[in-house]
Amino acid sequence: MRKLMDVGRINALGWKRQMQLRDGIALSYQDMLSKLPVCSNYTVSRTGF
User: What percent of the chain has a predicted confidence (pLDDT) above 70?
Assistant: First the structure.
């Protein structure tokens, strides 16, 4: 069973989305990456440590 959010109330107030969800996530991710400090020996492990 899928749970969907009812956007009827916010749409009634005149709100309209400006981009697709996938595009918004990609834009937010790129923004986050651009703000990370640069480190030449940075590695990410699969365990998260």
Answer: 76
Between the CA atoms of 32, 37, 39 and 43, what dihedral angle is there, to the nearest 10 degrees? -40
Q: Are 29 and 21 in contact (CB under 8 A)?
A: no
What's the rounded Cα separation, in Å, for the pair 43 and 20? Answer: 31
Cα 2–29–49 angle (5° rounding)? 95
CA-CA distance, 35 to 41, in Å (whole number)? Answer: 17
Q: Taking the model in full, what pTM does it have? A: 0.52
Helix (H, G, I), strand (E, B) or coil at 43: coil
Contacts of 27 (CB under 8 A, 6+ apart): 19
